[in-house]
Amino acid sequence: MYDAPTAAEQALQQHDIKISSRNVQVYYGDTHAIKDVDVDIEDKTVTAFIGPSGCGKSTFLRCLNRMNDTIDVARVEGEILLDGENIYDKKVDPVQLRARVGMVFQKPNPFPKSIYDNVAYGPRIHGMAKNRADLDEIVERALRRAALWDEVKDRMSAPGTGLSGGQQQRLCIARAVATEPEVLLMDEPASALDPIATSQIEELIDELRRNYAVVIVTHSMQQAARVSQKTAFFHLGNLVEYDDTSKIFTNPEDPRTESYITGRIG
Amino acid sequence: MTDATAPAPAAPAAGGKRRSLLEVDERTRRRNAAEARFRLYGIVAISVGLLFLLLLLGSILFNGLSAFQQTFVQVPVYLDPERLDPEGNRDPEEMRGVTTFGYKPLLNEAVYEKVQSLGIETPLPEPAMAPLLSDGAATTVRSFVLENPDRLGETVEFDLLASSRVDGYFKGRVTRDSIARDRFIDAAHLDLADAMNEAGTMGKQFNLSFITGTDASDNRPEQAGMGVSMIGSFFMMLVVLILALPIGVAASIYLEEFAPQNRITDFIEVNISNLAAVPSIVFGILGLAVFIQFMHLPQSAPLVGGLVLTLMTLPTIIISTRASLKAVPPSIRDAALGVGASKMQSVFHHVLPLAMPGILTGTIIGLAQALGETAPLLLIGMVGFIASNYPDGVAAGFLDPNSAMPAQIYEWAKRADPAFYERAWGGIIVLLAFLMTMNIIAIILRRRFERRW
Ligand SMILES: Nc1ncnc2c1ncn2[C@@H]1O[C@H](COP(=O)(O)OP(=O)(O)O)[C@@H](O)[C@H]1O
Ligand SMILES: [Mg+2]
Q1: Quick one: how far is CA B269 from the chain centroid?
Q2: Chain B residues lying within 8 Å of A65, measured CB to CB
Q3: What residues of chain B have any CB closer than 8 angstroms to a CB in chain A?
Q4: Which branch of life, at top level (chain A) (predicted)?
Q5: Is B261 exposed, middle or buried (0-12, 13-18, 19+ CB in 10 A)?
Q6: Which of residues 39-68 of A touch B (CB under 8 A)?
Q7: pLDDT band for position A8 (50/70/90)?
Q8: Any residues with CB less than 8 A from the CB of B161 and at least 6 apart, and which?
Q9: pLDDT at residue A59 in the model
Q10: Which residues of A touch B451 (CB under 8 A)?
Q11: Is the pLDDT of residue B14 over 70?
Q12: What CA–CA distance (Å, rounded) separates B188 from B185?
């Protein structure tokens, strides 16, 4: 549950800006899906994107690691700075970017390979391990971070697709974490899971905040309130309000935010 | 829909009494009857299909199995040195001077003597033994002599091919009525054949050379075999596999995973689907124009046949490969891209392995199609008449004239002598055996590689 931070805690929470977007527009063909979004995402913080379905949360999230490049009709305008560098610069190779900005998808999507290979895949293609022992260590560390190690350490060669839904999603988190990203993007990571698995994932997200900037899209306002420190409310492609989560949920400035969190729109 | 618009039960719950679940109402009964009828139609349709399949298989086996058996005559032949090696040098080069015509009297004698020694009564004189034996019998003996000149002067036991008339008699194709006006053979020959059969010196045996042998000329159907055309088909399939698989898979991967969606790729896509529907004879005439008349590749060569069949098979392979690439869930691609794999890595590490069973199945089905294809081969002359035996036939390889199994079958079916008709059916059995093997391989591969995600 969300506890209101004390003043001292709030002082501690002054984090660096990890990602900042300026005048971001996204078009799908003629559809203007994201309009003029400016947002500063802090490091070592969980930022939640909320809003009614179809308002562009996923679209904006996918801008942050250029996954929209894979959609032919999608076009992104504006600037998104990661540590001050524009990720949409012509010189940026999206493949390199995605190693630094990891992503976890709505539906758990482990590769149909062993648990070990799932986690080791990223480190392998990025040449992060010099030898097998190195790789073993990376895999173990990632699985520990994803709070999955104890459950799978005895069956590393079992197929990842044989795990339960919640375990699969944690495996996907481990896979994303294994490449040592700086930012973790999660698109409704718990929407396909049961309540117990969901709370495990939420605890995990809170843990991950120590090392990463986490951005999570969620359709559940309770979830946003539970796990995030910052919340951005999107509506019809606009970023309506972006503030501390406590502020958004207790004292929103925009009437649209208020009607959404009180259940009048959405 | 119909449920919604149907008139509601006369009175709403308040007024009428509740219907019992134990009695079926009119609507439900009609619906159940319709369902039962539909099932019946389905069963009838499947039964009709099965019936035709059985008829087809039955008639193929009925007509074709006899081609795998052939009538042979066992006779001891005295290899007379005076007639077979007039110079007396035992020099195979000189002995070639004696053609098969020189051997025929020898064989007639041998058969006649055998008949006499068995005590069979026959009105036929010695020279009239000829119609019992195949023309190929003399060739058999001559080849033996040329290979073993030192055995001249001995009496050697031979299994000689009987003529197609006699063979047909034992298979029920030739009867005393049917030969009434035959100038080659008459009833006395058949009586003799019966007697020899009883005496155990003439009879049907399994005929390996139908599978391994070469084609034979019009008047010796008993000698014709599938072997050389099998080699021709094999070389063509090799060309198709080597060319069509990599080209097809590369094209599909590009179109499916890399190409932008625009007018040009749409146009290409539509045309690939159209190509799959182009009659195969069109590919044949294209091959004739391009490969033979323009590029001057030799006629009747398996290379050209293979190229034509490659053109024909490519659309099939591309369509099935694209379908199996499409069937790989996009979430797998997202997952790979999400951890920083390049497009190519995501395709080659994850998508392609998952699509592999489908690709292999499609390829094998494409190959099977190509294996059975006849029309384009006729246009590029893949109906070479090859009567030379293998070592030469194999060495000939990709560029020398050859035939192909279906073309060979067509050739036989075209010939006048009904003995070839049996050969054609037999050839179809061989062809079907190949096709079935390929399909079974496809099924096994699919089972082996199938993975769930
Ligand atoms: N691949 C796409 N092609 C075209 N339009 C899309 C695509 N993905 C999303 N959209 C459109 O963009 C808008 C925002 O979608 P999305 O970002 O998925 O919303 P959310 O995640 O907030 O539910 C929607 O109107 C949707 O129809
Ligand atoms: Mg979404």
Answers
A1: 32
A2: 338
A3: 260-261, 329, 331-342, 345, 349-350, 354, 451-453
A4: Bacteria
A5: exposed
A6: 65, 67
A7: low
A8: B70, B71, B72, B73, B133, B134, B136, B137, B140, B222, B223
A9: 95
A10: 112
A11: no
A12: 8
- The verdict on a CB contact (< 8 Å) between B336 and A161 is no
CA distance B32 to B372: 45
pTM of this prediction? 0.82
Which of A66, A75, A103, A173 best probes binding to B when mutated, by most B CB atoms within 10 angstroms? A103
**Which residues of chain A from 6 to 45 reach within 8 Å of chain B, CB to CB?**
none
> What distances in angstroms separate CA A106 from CA A127, A189, B101, B188, one per listed residue?
28, 5, 86, 89
Query: Quick one: average pLDDT of A118-123?
Result: 95
pLDDT at B399: 79
Partner-chain residue, chosen from A99, A109, A112, that has the shortest CB–CB distance to B340: A99
Phi, psi of B429 (to 5 degrees): -60, -45
pLDDT band for position B1 (cuts 50, 70, 90): very low
pLDDT(B372) > 50: yes
* CB of A87 less than 8 A from some CB of B: no
d(CA B80, CA B98): 12
What is the average per-residue pLDDT within B327-333? 93
C-beta of residue A99 within 8 angstroms of C-beta of residue B340: yes
Pairing of strands A85-86, A74-82: antiparallel
Task: Check whether B344 has a pLDDT greater than 60.
Answer: yes
Nearest ligand 1 atom to the CA of A29 is 4
User: In this model, does residue B4 exceed pLDDT 50?
Assistant: no
Torsion of CA B279, B284, B289, B294, to 10 degrees: 130
Strands B69-78 and A101-104: unpaired
Domains, chain B: 70-207 (no CATH), 227-449 (1.10.3720.10)
pLDDT in tens, B174-218: 888 888 888 888 888 999 999 999 888 898 999 888 988 888 887
Q: Rounded to 5, what percent of chain B is helix, strand, coil?
A: 65, 5, 30
State the average pLDDT over residues B54-82.
Answer: 91
For chain A, the distance separating the N- and C-terminal CA atoms, rounded to the nearest angstrom, is 23
* pLDDT value, residue B299: 83
Comparing B10 with B356, the larger pLDDT belongs to B356
Residue of A69, A96, A107, A111 to mutate when probing chain B, most B C-beta within 10 A:
A111
Does the pLDDT of residue B395 top 60, yes or no?
no
Can you give the pLDDT at residue B45? 97
CB atoms within 10 A of CB A139: 23
Most ligand 1 atoms within 8 A of CB, residue of A26, A28, A236 to mutate: A28
ipTM: 0.89
Report the distance separating Cα B100 and Cα A257, nearest Å: 105
Domain ranges of chain A: 7-261
- Segment B124-136 mean pLDDT: 88
For the segment B63-86, the average pLDDT, to the nearest whole number, is: 89
- CATH superfamily to which A7-261 belongs: P-loop containing nucleotide triphosphate hydrolases (3.40.50.300)
The rounded Å distance from CA A187 to ligand 2 centre is 7
For A98, other C-beta atoms within 10 Å of its C-beta total 26
Tell me if chain B has a CB within 8 Å of the CB of A138: no
Q: How many beta-carbon contacts under 8 Å exist across A and B?
A: 68
Task: Record the tokens describing residue B34, joined without a space.
Answer: 């319709």
Ligand 1: nearest atom to the Cα of A234: 22
pLDDT the model gives residue B13: 47
User: Ligand 1 — pocket residues by CB below 6 A?
Assistant: A 28, 31, 33, 51, 53-59, 71, 73
